[in-house]
Amino acid sequence: MSDSSLRLVWVYPDLLSTYGDQGNALVVERRARQRGLDVMRIDVRSDQPIPTSGDIYLIGGGEDRPQRLASERLRRDGGLNRAAENGAIIFSVCAGYQILGHEFINDLGEREPGLGLIDVVSTRGEGERCVGDVLADIDPRFGLPQLTGFENHQGITHLGPTARPFARTVIGRGNGTGDGTEGAYNDTVFGTYMHGPVMARNPQIADLLLKLALDVNALPPTDDRWYEALRNERISSASQPA
Amino acid sequence: MSGNSEPLTPRAKLAVTAGRAAAAVSRAAGRGSGSVIGGRVALKLDPDLLGRLAQHLDVVLVSATNGKTTTTRLIAEALRAAGPVVSNALGANMPAGITSALAGGSDARFGVIEVDEKYLAGVARDVTPKAIALLNLSRDQLDRAAETRMLAEKWREGLAGSKAIVIANADDPLIVWAASSSPTVVWVAAGQEWKDDAWSCPSCGGVMQRPGDDWFCGECGFRRPAPSWVLNGDYVLDPHGSAWPIRLQLPGRANKANAATSAAVAACFGVPPQVALERMYSVQAVAGRYDVVSFMDRELRLLLAKNPAGWLETFSLIDPPPTPVILAVNARGADGTDTSWLWDVDYTRLAGHPIFVIGDRRLDLAVRLEVAGLDFRVCDTVDEAVRSAPPGRIELIANYTAFQDVRRRVGN
């Protein structure tokens, strides 16, 4: 952590903040403050440079054209790649997840290069959009409870040899590859298709990012009864046949 | 139909009759007004019926993400100064519902029609409107994949050949993009509090600059057009520079914006602003919205907010703290089944209000309010929320199906 405050960077809200993913930044900030940390939240618009000294970077989902524009501007800027080289924690959702991979299909139907921070390649599915509640088991090395989220995408994301799946789906499509994977990560760079927003449904992921950023194994406990109530309801709702 | 033009063809007459019969059956079976089923039956028998019904009318179409139903009502009241009006006042705003409404107005001179955003271009082709009012576009029901900018693009393509006068909000870049393909546009500076769907230039994708009330794209020069009508506080300035007071029973800035746009529409039909605005005062509640009801010996004001932009405008019109507020959120089909949008709403604006949370998705809202650092109480029913609320009139804000649930319960 740099200086005395946690630097939380919210990347390109003007382009990638369509599906309530700003909630991830709100939850991380809230949970950091509940642990007595000072938080500096930095919202970076796409005509501004990405700071390279952030501790945690969050990127949300967006529509197809803004996704292409965001990828172009992030490649040109280079700041997020430099931050990753410095060991920053990066967590991305949906369109943002695809941008962090090697390439994805843009709004013009063409292959658009991404930032190559996660070893994945995304294409576009031919069938129906994946829309609905998801339930998945997170990679056991993180020791986190089940992942609950809402997916709304048409992407298919293939993992390369160095990426690990973030979770295995119990219900829902996740990466859309049919192999049951959902999301991916390389070191401290994470991607998921989960909205909800995902941190509101899984505050333990926000805590995971904080622990990685602070380089600690545990955080003081918080009163999580509303999160728990919501999790229980969503998990039980997803488990019931529609 | 008014006898000043060619009568309906026998086929169209048959279609209207069959539609009415189907609607009557549906009503008798207790399935609502029957307007949608009636319209579907009629359109099946005569696919061109909508156009035929409209050809005897001077039609204005109204579309937007928020404020369609209210603005349709305000325009209808204004135009009644000049002649009988037929309108889909209950908000059945897709082709079947519109057909049904028009079939019921055989003596009308004006058709004032609310149109669902996705159907605007098609309905505009079918009914050859004299005017089209476009209020605002913002994120709504995103799990249906209705991307906001794509919608603006479809409007732009659909309206390019229209002969209608387009009355459009100069303060919403997406609306300006959609409308500026039309040959005749009357720009109204109607304001738009919500800005988060228009930071990216709809034309070139550049980043929008938004100093004060102005906006422009720093890259391609796409910019706010000079308005000829301007909403200025409680007044609307007409193109001649005269300021007309807006006095409404409906609350809030957004309804003043709706009234300003309605006055500009009325002027296209020869109704002067003074007359139009005076008539709008009579509108008290629109399909239950803004209604103040008495329930369990308490007063409740019922407010509908379906999406982030709607919630933002609603927060600006409620009574100040310590007025109690009940929030009701569902996520059924008509609402969109994703609740992520709650995180685009700035609930810290409710600080100081006692807050009570109900609805199918009250736990989503509870987490949202917890993260916003607000005090709140989660209740199982509207009865429990009303019982728990401290004294004073209660503001109840609900999204679509939650609003209907509340109306049923409070007997409105």
TrEMBL record, chain A:
Pathway: Cell wall biogenesis; peptidoglycan biosynthesis. It catalyses: beta-D-GlcNAc-(1->4)-Mur2Ac(oyl-L-Ala-gamma-D-Glu-L-Lys-D-Ala-D-Ala)-di-trans,octa-cis-undecaprenyl diphosphate + L-glutamine + ATP + H2O = beta-D-GlcNAc-(1->4)-Mur2Ac(oyl-L-Ala-D-isoglutaminyl-L-Lys-D-Ala-D-Ala)-di-trans,octa-cis-undecaprenyl diphosphate + L-glutamate + ADP + phosphate + H(+); L-glutamine + H2O = L-glutamate + NH4(+). Substrate binds at R129. HAMAP family: Lipid_II_synth_GatD (MF_02213). Its EC number is 6.3.5.13, 3.5.1.2. InterPro entries: Class_I_gatase-like, CobQ_GATase1, GATase_3, Lipid_II_synth_GatD. It comes from Streptomyces jumonjinensis. Belongs to the CobB/CobQ family. GatD subfamily. The active site is at C94, H195. GO terms for molecular function: carbon-nitrogen ligase activity on lipid II; glutaminase activity; transferase activity. GO terms for biological process: cell wall organization; cobalamin biosynthetic process; peptidoglycan biosynthetic process; regulation of cell shape. It holds the Pfam family GATase_3. This is Lipid II isoglutaminyl synthase (glutamine-hydrolyzing) subunit GatD. It comes from the Bacteria. Forms a heterodimer with MurT. The lipid II isoglutaminyl synthase complex catalyzes the formation of alpha-D-isoglutamine in the cell wall lipid II stem peptide. The GatD subunit catalyzes the hydrolysis of glutamine to glutamate and ammonia. The resulting ammonia molecule is channeled to the active site of MurT. Keywords: Cell shape, Cell wall biogenesis/degradation, Glutamine amidotransferase, Hydrolase, Ligase, Peptidoglycan synthesis, Transferase. Residues 9-202 form the CobB/CobQ-like glutamine amidotransferase domain.
TrEMBL record, chain B:
Belongs to the MurCDEF family. MurT subfamily. Zn(2+) binds at C201, C204, C217, C220. This is Lipid II isoglutaminyl synthase (glutamine-hydrolyzing) subunit MurT. It catalyses: beta-D-GlcNAc-(1->4)-Mur2Ac(oyl-L-Ala-gamma-D-O-P-Glu-L-Lys-D-Ala-D-Ala)-di-trans,octa-cis-undecaprenyl diphosphate + NH4(+) = beta-D-GlcNAc-(1->4)-Mur2Ac(oyl-L-Ala-D-isoglutaminyl-L-Lys-D-Ala-D-Ala)-di-trans,octa-cis-undecaprenyl diphosphate + phosphate + H(+); beta-D-GlcNAc-(1->4)-Mur2Ac(oyl-L-Ala-gamma-D-Glu-L-Lys-D-Ala-D-Ala)-di-trans,octa-cis-undecaprenyl diphosphate + L-glutamine + ATP + H2O = beta-D-GlcNAc-(1->4)-Mur2Ac(oyl-L-Ala-D-isoglutaminyl-L-Lys-D-Ala-D-Ala)-di-trans,octa-cis-undecaprenyl diphosphate + L-glutamate + ADP + phosphate + H(+); beta-D-GlcNAc-(1->4)-Mur2Ac(oyl-L-Ala-gamma-D-Glu-L-Lys-D-Ala-D-Ala)-di-trans,octa-cis-undecaprenyl diphosphate + ATP = beta-D-GlcNAc-(1->4)-Mur2Ac(oyl-L-Ala-gamma-D-O-P-Glu-L-Lys-D-Ala-D-Ala)-di-trans,octa-cis-undecaprenyl diphosphate + ADP. The keyword ATP-binding applies. It is an enzyme of class 6 (ligase). The lineage of its organism: Bacteria, Bacillati, Actinomycetota, Actinomycetes, Kitasatosporales. Pathway: Cell wall biogenesis; peptidoglycan biosynthesis. One of its GO terms (biological process) is peptidoglycan biosynthetic process. The lipid II isoglutaminyl synthase complex catalyzes the formation of alpha-D-isoglutamine in the cell wall lipid II stem peptide. The MurT subunit catalyzes the ATP-dependent amidation of D-glutamate residue of lipid II, converting it to an isoglutamine residue. GO terms for molecular function: acid-amino acid ligase activity; ATP binding; carbon-nitrogen ligase activity on lipid II; zinc ion binding. Gene3D superfamilies: Mur-like, catalytic domain. HAMAP family: Lipid_II_synth_MurT. Its EC number is 6.3.5.13.
